[in-house]
Amino acid sequence: EAGVAQSPRYKIIEKRQSVAFWCNPISGHATLYWYQQILGQGPKLLIQFQNNGVVDDSQLPKDRFSAERLKGVDSTLKIQPAKLEDSAVYLCASRGLQETQYFGPGTRLLVL
Amino acid sequence: AQRVTQPEKLLSVFKGAPVELKCNYSYSGSPELFWYVQYSRQRLQLLLRHISRESIKGFTADLNKGETSFHLKKPFAQEEDSAMYYCALSGFGAQKLVFGQGTRLTINP
């Protein structure tokens, strides 16, 4: 089966600019996650969707981060405006009934 | 609070030597524990989970609730085991994962 797809793979922006990331989960997976992984740390959950509804966004900095999954399939994560500390790898994962999360390749963001 | 601690950022062993990657956790309840691995230029993937009690690629991990640990072990390391290893926990149903900071394992020839 095709894995989780993410784009772009790399992005360089200046602080205060906006950026968007896209994720296409494994077909049929109802649960979708966005994680932030800062260099030297493990992934940290930002938001979890079940179909097109938000299950957990307690660690999402809502003043600058937003995410949506309008049709319960693809998802976008946006940062506006970006800060230097947002430099990280943004991972998307999806999960079906088997309770295993499958991760995408990640988008590496550098904010200058 | 949920927390996963991997005390070693780096671990280097020789091929054929035993390997143990340490993981301690804090969780008020009955957690599910996982080990994820990321090989060079590959995506993060599940290595094993405690409820399945499997041995994957020669690795095993036993949940010790008394010591709140879930150490990953392999009796004889191979060069292809070189990777980044993350311990993670979740509550019931494995919905939300909390990761440790990771241990970079290097197997020397």
Describe this structure in words.
The complex is a heterodimer of chains A (112) and B (109). In chain A, the strands form two sheets. In chain A, strands 2, 4, 5, 6, 9, 10 and 11 form a seven-stranded mixed sheet that branches. In chain A, strands 1-3-8-7 form a four-stranded antiparallel sheet, with no helix packed on it. With 112 residues, chain A is mainly beta. Chain A has strands at residues 5-7, 10-13, 19-24, 31-37, 44-50, 53-56, 65-68, 75-79, 88-95, 101-103, 107-111. The mean pLDDT of chain A is 94. With 109 residues, chain B is mostly beta strands. Chain B is 0% helix and 43% strand. Chain B has no helices and eleven strands. Chain B has strands at 3-5, 10-14, 19-21, 24-26, 32-38, 45-49, 60-61, 72-74, 83-90, 98-99, 103-108. In chain B, the strands form three sheets. In chain B, strands 2, 5, 6, 9, 10 and 11 form a six-stranded mixed sheet that branches. Chain B has a three-stranded antiparallel sheet with strand order 3-8-7, with no helix packed on it. In chain B, strands 1-4 form a two-stranded antiparallel sheet. Chain B is globular, with a radius of gyration of 13 Å. The mean pLDDT of chain B is 92. Chains A and B meet through strand 5 and strand 10 of A and strand 6 and strand 10 of B.
Which chains have the largest interface? A-B, 22 and 19 residues
Tell me, rounded to a whole number, the average pLDDT of chain B: 92
Task: Determine the N-to-C terminus distance of chain B.
Answer: 41 Å
Count the DSSP helices of chain B. Answer: 0
What's the mean pLDDT score of chain A?
Answer: 94
> Helix and strand succession of chain A?
EEEEEEEEEEE
pLDDT < 50 stretches of chain B: none
Question: Layout of helices and strands, plus pairs?
Answer:
The complex is a heterodimer of chains A (112) and B (109).
Chain A: E1 5-7, E2 10-13, E3 19-24, E4 31-37, E5 44-50, E6 53-56, E7 65-68, E8 75-79, E9 88-95, E10 101-103, E11 107-111
Chain B: E1 3-5, E2 10-14, E3 19-21, E4 24-26, E5 32-38, E6 45-49, E7 60-61, E8 72-74, E9 83-90, E10 98-99, E11 103-108
Parallel strand pairs in B: 2-11
Antiparallel strand pairs in B: 1-4, 3-8, 5-6, 5-9, 7-8, 9-10, 9-11
